[in-house]
Amino acid sequence: MARAQANPGISWRDLTPQPLILLSGSEQYLASRAFELLRAQAASREDIAHTRLNAQSYEPGELLLATSASLFSTANLVEIHDLASMNEYFLKDALAYLKSPAPENVLIMHHSGGTRGKKLLDAIKAAGAVIVNCQPVKKDAEKIEFVTAEIKAAKRRITNDAVKALVAAVGNSLAELGSSCSQLIQDTTGTIDQDVVDKYYGGRVEVTAFKVADAAIAGNAQVALRTLRHALSTGTDPIPIVATLAMKVRQLAKVLGVNEPAAVLASQLGMAPWQVQQAQQQARGWKRSDLAACVETIAQTDRMVKGGGRSPGYALERAILFIAGKAPRH
């Protein structure tokens, strides 16, 4: 398993039909895109048969049948799902097949992780399988890269601000992020900018929270309060807004007075480079003592919105006014 981590493999986007393919990682969405891509590529051939097998519920002989030539096909595309939960029947038949895999076939297998099946994984790699990276996408920089690639693959353009806004709005789930990219591609024309993203996803609590925080930090109390009141009136939970305020103020404190390049600071602070650049811009003119006071105010507000006060909305408004009042006047 250590080898798989050291060499995560190619992107699913670069996948082409090969005799042996191993999808390695627990991100089901990436694995599903890889399966989908190969199905589409195989659909252009009339001489290839398609079979889907489940390694957990596998019956003896199914793999031999799926990989054998027939009267109607000279090659086979065989999908193997749930490799991490394989039974002993599948292990035995798969090890036998790997001793002499048919070069005309495409055998694509997904292993989501864990130690089960290590013997088979070692055999798959020793047989020269193409390894496809299906590890979870957690960092914002990776999500930004994913969105950019999705839009580019559709021969469309998207602005940097729009990419960041989309990741902020729907970036918790890669499947939802991919679906959102598809929606924007299908429902819009021309360059996708931040206004377009806001039109479709601006009502999301994540987007609202960032708008409130950014306005407060910039000293624009009116915009922050107007956005907050609209969000609360439509049922938005105040807790994520407080959490975003806290995160943004902490980011400012981290970069304040530090002159190192964003790329260097990003790895040290666990932030994406664009987050560092934005925080550095927003931190200009702030005093460390004022940021400390804002952190204390946000901590008090957090307690109040979680049951320590009668009116979470009022507590949030007070915090926003306090932060906006401390913001430097440029």
From TrEMBL:
Which GO MF term does the entry hold, naming one? DNA-directed DNA polymerase activity
Matches recorded under Gene3D superfamilies: 1.20.272.10, P-loop containing nucleotide triphosphate hydrolases
GO BP annotations, alphabetical order? DNA-templated DNA replication
Query: Which branch of life, at top level?
Result: Bacteria
Alphabetized UniProt keyword annotations: DNA replication, DNA-directed DNA polymerase, Nucleotidyltransferase, Transferase
Q: Which GO terms describe its cellular component?
A: DNA polymerase III complex
- For this protein, the Enzyme Commission number is 2.7.7.7
Name any one Pfam family assigned in the record.
DNA_pol3_delta_C
Which major enzyme category is it? transferase
Q: Where is the signal peptide?
A: none
The DNA polymerase III delta subunit-like C-terminal domain is annotated at 208-321
Catalyses which reaction(s)? DNA(n) + a 2'-deoxyribonucleoside 5'-triphosphate = DNA(n+1) + diphosphate
Q: Which SUPFAM superfamilies match?
A: post-AAA+ oligomerization domain-like
Family statement: Belongs to the DNA polymerase HolA subunit family.
Know the name of this protein? Answer: DNA-directed DNA polymerase
